[in-house]
Amino acid sequence: MNNRYGKLASWVYDLDKPVGRSFGDLEYYRQRLDGCEGPILEPAVGNGRIFVPLLEAGFPMEGFDASEEMLGYCRHECRDRNLFASLTRQTFEDFSYDTSFSAIIVPAGSFQLITEATSAAAVLQRFFDHLAPGGKLVLDLDPIGSFLGPTDSIRSWTTQDGDLLTLTDQRVETDFVAQTTLAHLRYDHWRDGGLLKSELDLFKLRWWGVEEFSLVLRGAGFTDMVVSGNYEHGRKPRNGDDIISFEARRPE
């Protein structure tokens, strides 16, 4: 997985998706985790948008991320709230804990940062192995339509100090065989009309079909699968949904 969040990318992410901002997912995850006994893991925790509110609500959260910059934002938000956070720098492919988790959550399509199908299957197996018997996996995927929509956008944010951050997003490749898209993301930091710093990220994502992903989950050993559309638990996904959620368990 080559995708990473550097300094400017992490800054933009934190401005665009601050801790506590919900797209319907925060409420959904609180509901689906209600009654879980034991620690809960969030891989790719990012700036803590979901992690911190769940920790505040009393859920025993642990998390990891591949980006030290993102972890810095998450730790800062936890310190500001006097919350103890168990956070480490790890990747999807090689994370390891001695703990067995009652739940693992992967909100907001973060799993689609894994762009090789074999690697994704191995990560799902790793999730399964880190769950306690009866533990659940709750994971979101962006539907195929979101990958094939309009591209080439420019967005901007103003910082607290009045600086300007811009993001130019240009899709440069769509591979219909590998089911991936590749975008060039250019982040620019401006002050008084002058360019202070730029970053260019090559950002690759993979899309999945609903049945395809269900088969991979079953192949990893998961059972009791529920697939839901737009954070309406138990409502089957339909064309036009913005998000598809999968919930599955490790058997007792």
TrEMBL record:
One Pfam family it belongs to: Methyltransf_25
Highest rank taxon of the organism: Bacteria
GO molecular function term, any single one: methyltransferase activity
UniProt entry keywords in alphabetical sequence: Methyltransferase, Transferase
Single biological process term from Gene Ontology: methylation
Domain Methyltransferase: 40-135
Species of the source: Nitratireductor arenosus
InterPro entries: Methyltransf_25, SAM-dependent_MTases_sf
Protein name: Methyltransferase domain-containing protein
